[in-house]
Amino acid sequence: MNSDMLIRITRYYRALNRLRAIGLEKVFAHNLSDAAGVSAAVVRKDFSLLSIHGQKRGGYEIVDLIEKLSAILGKGDPQNVIVVGCGRIGKALMHYSGFEPDGIRVVAGFDTDPVVYSDVSHPVPVYPLSRLEEVIEALGVRVAIITVPESSAADTAEKLIDAGIKGILNFSPITLKAKPASEGGSQCVIHNINIALELEQIFYQLQFPDTMK
Questions:
Q1: pLDDT over 80 (residue 180)
Q2: Which three-class secondary structure state does DSSP give residue 192?
Q3: Cα 182–chain centre separation
Q4: Residue 211: what pLDDT?
Q5: Maximal CA-CA distance, the chain
Q6: What secondary structure does DSSP assign to 144-188, as a single string?
Q7: Which pLDDT tens digit goes with each residue over 125-172?
Q8: Domain end: 72, 98, 123, which one?
Q9: Residue 187 sits in a domain of what CATH number?
Q10: What's the pLDDT tens digit per position in 104-119?
Q11: Counted domains in the chain
Q12: How far apart are CA 142 and CA 106, in angstroms?
């Protein structure tokens, strides 16, 4: 399964949960095509590749689809995530409740500032970085979100990988790359999200729309 298809399946899954929440029991390909930004034919092709078949006129059973897509996406027990760097972005992520419907729980935060990790008003406990390995092992965490300054991002990622983290979502301004196994690195999936860069691309497309066709 390629990354584009995985993204579409995730969008189908979220759309199905919204439809179930409003009481619908069946769905058609064109209903899901809007949510994923593709044609109904692409939806049907995706489902066919996944051996998911509906009725020609009856559509797909929503509960059945959710169950099958959940298994494909590895949904099951909630997935624990930690946030390293509890500034504005980090705090916003810790307060965000929208992860829960997707089975994702932010279970802890980490920061170097004693004022931050001594503050008991956070929705999840915040610890000093010295307890990183201890908490990751105790809570069975495999994924971390980095929201630290550029200067400490690479060092933070290295600490996380050494502590057993297998996936990192990086919000810091620097692009991080996992060291390949051939160079003594541990397998770790890193996704970089540079908000400023994304905004620059939008502004560029607004200024020169013809170049993006």
A1: no
A2: strand
A3: 27
A4: 65
A5: 61
A6: EEE---HHHHHHHHHHHHHTT--EEEE-SSSPP-PPPGGGT----
A7: 999 999 999 999 999 999 999 999 999 999 999 999 999 999 999 999
A8: 72
A9: 3.40.50.720
A10: 899 999 999 999 988 8
A11: 2
A12: 12
Do 90 and 58 belong together in one domain? Answer: no
In a domain, 53, yes or no: yes
| pLDDT band (50, 70, 90) for residue 7 | confident
Q: Same domain for 111 and 177?
A: yes
Any domain includes 193: yes
The whole domain housing 180 covers 79-199
213 in a domain, yes or no?
A: no
pTM of the entire predicted model: 0.71
DSSP for 55-86 reads BTTTBEEHHHHHHHHHHHTT-SSPEEEEEE--
Strands of 79-84's sheet in order across: 126-128, 104-111, 79-84, 143-146, 167-170, 189-192
Distances from the Cα of 203 to the Cα of 136, 195, 212, angstroms = 39, 12, 12
